[in-house]
């Protein structure tokens, strides 16, 4: 069983009392976090924002928030054999940020722009101008 918490809904609806992530983790439960994106109770799409809320409002550490957003989220959907962690044979949807550690990313989530994106192991784009991808891009015929 994976407890899936939706801090964006509490934020969006301006309700008091976020889910007790810290208590659940200390009780030994696995915790996932998600956006609950929908038109009625939460229009938040940013997982970085959800991770920030999880740290600032629910007492999770930045590393716990990353795990809750990735591996635990995949496990909650019974897809942990396909995604949710970086392992051989799993789908590689990756975002690279140019930050010194996960704590900076979580606490500066509104200011951080992803550096590079890969989908299914394939390079998609560099999102910051002037940064070269570590992956060779196909010849554009120029």
List keywords for this structure.
3-stranded antiparallel sheet; 142 residues; alpha+beta; 31% helix; TIM Barrel
Give a verbal description of the structure.
- The chain has 142 residues and is an alpha+beta fold.
- The protein has one domain: Metal-dependent hydrolases (TIM Barrel, Alpha-Beta Barrel), CATH 3.20.20.140.
- Helices cover 31% and strands 14% of the residues.
- It is built from six helices and five strands.
- It has helices at 7-12, 21-26, 47-58, 62-69, 71-76, 102-107; strands spanning 2-5, 30-33, 94-96, 116-119, 122-126.
- The strands form two sheets. The protein has a three-stranded antiparallel beta sheet, with no helix packed on it.
- α3 (47-58) packs across α4 (62-69).
- It is globular.
- The mean pLDDT is 88.
What's the layout of helices and strands?
Elements: E1 2-5, H1 7-12, H2 21-26, E2 30-33, H3 47-58, H4 62-69, H5 71-76, E3 94-96, H6 102-107, E4 116-119, E5 122-126
Parallel strand pairs: 1-2
Antiparallel strand pairs: 3-4, 4-5
Helix pairs in contact: 3-4
Q: What can be said about this structure in brief?
A:
With about 140 residues, the protein is an alpha+beta fold. It has helices spanning about 5-10, 20-25, 45-60, 60-70, 70-75, 100-105, and strands at about 1-5, 30-35, 95, 115-120, 120-125. The strands form two sheets. The protein has a three-stranded antiparallel beta sheet, with no helix packed on it.
């Amino acid at each position: 069983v994976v407890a899936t918490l939706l801090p964006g809904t509490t934020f969006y609806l301006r309700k008091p009392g976020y889910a007790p992530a810290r208590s659940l983790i200390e009780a030994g439960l696995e915790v996932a976090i998600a956006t609950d994106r929908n038109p009625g109770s939460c229009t938040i799409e940013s997982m970085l924002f959800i991770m920030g809320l999880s740290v600032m409002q629910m007492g999770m550490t930045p590393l716990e928030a990353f795990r809750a957003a990735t591996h635990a989220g995949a496990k909650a959907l019974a897809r942990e054999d396909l995604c949710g962690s970086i392992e051989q044979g799993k789908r590689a949807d990756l975002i690279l940020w140019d930050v010194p550690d996960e704590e900076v990313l979580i606490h500066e989530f509104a200011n951080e722009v992803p550096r590079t994106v890969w989908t299914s192991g394939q390079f998609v784009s560099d999102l910051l101008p002037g940064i070269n991808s570590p992956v060779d891009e196909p010849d554009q015929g120029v």
